Amino acid sequence: MTVGVYKVRVVIGAALLHFLSRTEPNLQVDADGRPIGIVADLVHGDGGDTLGYIDWSRVTAVTWRFARAESAARKLEGKVRALAADVDGS
């Protein structure tokens, strides 16, 4: 079994919102095919934003992809090291 999360992105104008979901998101659309929400097991805190209010009538794109836990952990570790190097001035 592969362990990981789905990285969800919601685009509103120039804003790009990032969320993490334990399950593959299910995009909800109205009769005209416009997005009205998503059904997902979102991760709140610990690397995922908490989903508040979204004006779905202004959403222009919703994307997601699966990220293996090992890959995400390595990427995060690299970012932490880069930030530490900036703080240390090295």
State the secondary-structure class: alpha+beta
Number of alpha- plus pi-helical segments: 1
Mass-distribution shape: globular
Q: Summarize the main sheet.
A: 4 strands, antiparallel
Count of DSSP strands: 6
Contiguous low-pLDDT stretches (5 residues minimum) are none
What is the chain-wise order of helices and strands? EEEEEEH
Percentage of residues in DSSP E strands: 35-45%
Please describe what this structure looks like.
The chain is an alpha+beta fold and 90 residues long. It has one domain. The protein is built from one helix and six strands, in the order ββββββα. A four-stranded antiparallel sheet has the order 5-2-1-6. 8% of the residues are buried.
Brief synopsis:
The protein is of the alpha+beta class.
Architecture blueprint of SSEs:
Layout (H helix, E strand, L loop, with lengths): L3 E9 L2 E7 L4 E4 L5 E5 L2 E2 L15 E10 H20 L2
Antiparallel strand pairs: 1-2, 1-6, 2-5, 3-4
Index terms:
globular; single chain; two-stranded antiparallel sheet; 90 residues
